[in-house]
Amino acid sequence: MKAIILAAGMGKRLGSSMPKPLTILVNGKTIMDFQVERLSSIVGIKNIIVVVGYKKEMIMEKFPQLSFVYNDAFAQTNTSKSLLLALRNVSDDTMWLNGDVYFDADAPKLLLNVGFSCCLVDRKMCGHEEVKYDLNEDGFIHHISKNIPKPQGECLGVNIILKKDLDIFRDELEKVGNQDYFEEALENLTVFKKISLKPVEVGAFYCHEIDFEEDLTVVKDYLITQDGIAKQ
């Protein structure tokens, strides 16, 4: 299995001049430190690919052991095109995640051996900025976007696309607009049942995407209150 971290964006909403994945959470460890450490611990993941763009040298110098794909149009494109670049030469089941999401060590393992392409989700009330989902009559994800009238909950930004769905997913990522999120391509496929996308509930594990300063505060508070950060 491959793993992809989408880290090309400028992260303007957080108000920092550095790439958002390099934001320090606790004890000098950044968002990406936690991500790389936890992805590396998953049995079967042999290669972590990072899509870089904004101030790419900062990320590449900090993580020289990883593989990198450069999105030179990072200022004009969104996660759909960054993911497409990373998937061009991939032929295996692939886990991908946004470069601004903190998660407990065991949370992404819930997606393994599901048997379908899948998304980690949290059944809860959602705010306007959160990516939401609803379900079709078969219990698979139907819509996935920020604009869903009656959502089931939030899609947390950690996902798996199976090898058998790769070609059709790449084709759809190619078709969507430069400013679209990768969720647009997923929704185009799920609405017409071209792929079956399974929601996998995060349950008792913690997973939080860091878009704004208040998100950063929430995650830092969570880590500080844990009984030993290494357990998380």
Keywords:
232 residues; globular; single chain; alpha/beta; two-stranded antiparallel ribbon
Principal-axis shape equals: globular
CATH-wise, what's the superfamily?
A: Spore Coat Polysaccharide Biosynthesis Protein SpsA, Chain A
Q: Report, as a whole number of angstroms, the end-to-end distance.
A: 23 Å
Q: What's the main sheet like? A: 9 strands, mixed
Number of domains: 1
Number of helices: 6
| CATH uppermost class | Alpha Beta
What percent strand? 25-35%
CATH architecture title: Alpha-Beta Complex
The helix/strand class is alpha/beta
Using the coordinates shown, work out and report the CATH topology.
Spore Coat Polysaccharide Biosynthesis Protein SpsA, Chain A
Helix content: 25-40%
Q: Which residues form runs of ≥5 with pLDDT under 50?
A: none
Please describe the topology of this protein.
Layout: E1 2-7, E2 24-26, E3 29-30, H1 31-40, E4 47-52, H2 56-62, E5 67-70, H3 79-87, E6 94-98, E7 101-103, E8 117-122, E9 132-135, E10 141-145, E11 153-161, H4 166-175, H5 182-191, E12 197-201, E13 207-209, H6 213-224
Parallel strand pairs: 1-4, 1-6, 4-5, 8-12
Antiparallel strand pairs: 2-3, 6-11, 7-13, 8-11, 9-10, 9-11
